Amino acid sequence: MWDSYLKGFKAYLQLERSMSVNTIDAYLHDLDMFSAFLSATFPGTSPEQVALAHLQAFLLSINELEFAANSQARVLSGIRSFYRYLLLEDLITADPTELLQSPKLTRPLPHVLSIADIELLFATIDHSKPEGQRNRAMLETMYSCGLRVSELITLKLTDLYLDLGFVKVIGKGNKERLVPIGNAAVKQIQLYREHVRSHLPRIKKGNEDILFLGRWGSGLSRVMVFMIIKELAAKAGLSAEIHPHTFRHSFATHLVEAGADLRAVQEMLGHKSITTTEIYTHLDRTFLRETLQKYHPRYG
What we know:
The protein has 2 domains: 3-88, DNA polymerase, domain 1, CATH 1.10.150.130; 115-295, hpI Integrase, Chain A (Orthogonal Bundle), CATH 1.10.443.10. α6 packs antiparallel against α8. A 3-stranded antiparallel β-sheet has the order 1-2-3. By secondary structure, the protein is mainly alpha-helical. β2 (166-170) and β3 (176-180) form a beta hairpin. The protein contains 13 helices and 3 strands. The protein has helices at residues 3-15, 21-41, 52-64, 69-88, 115-124, 130-145, 149-153, 183-195, 222-236, 244-257, 262-269, 274-277, 279-295; strands at 160-161, 166-170, 176-180. 56% of the residues lie in helices and 4% in strands.
């Protein structure tokens, strides 16, 4: 009963939606789970006979199986797509998923370093080695500008306007933005350029304008930056959760805690939507509550 519908749905996803193999497999797996539930609970129910009550019962069943809210939302997404396809093909006259409420998703709060943690991490860097000065300049830049790791490793010499206190960043969707850069980061970049980068034996073709280079004159990969931070965090005795994006989260959180305008933070981070930036207001509320608990004589 369901096989012919699912075969057509698969072709629709492949040919008209151009979805990846993994996404298609996930959708079909979730629909198999839904049809198996119907077969066991409402025998003989065909796709065009499915009603809102059937869908609600199914969501209740996977909730009782302790599916996470994100997993429930993914399953529901596949079912919605399936019924949009049936509606498009005139195989049904009404979409039973239209009034179905999605599970409420909670966004996990990102791990953030304290200012003291950041100072500890910087103090762990061995400046006697050339890569130490480079690493200090990189981490200062990430924290000063709130850069994504992809933005850091593609930062160019011609993107630097250090005399004006700005760097040009190429973000997601190839969008450019100008981000202010602090004096500490400017100082470390200048030291790196003067004492390390200018003394590299050679720079590989195509990397001449890249700011941060490895010892053999080529740009760094995301994985290399990740490993550098992991190693420094371990030496400093900090949490294993620290990764390149932690500096971006810390940048935004410290600005919001200090009272920075949320739209200014959004602009500096290069977020398309203000709602993405609003997560840092939740972190700020946590900070405020902890401060109140710690210092208010009548709290508790």
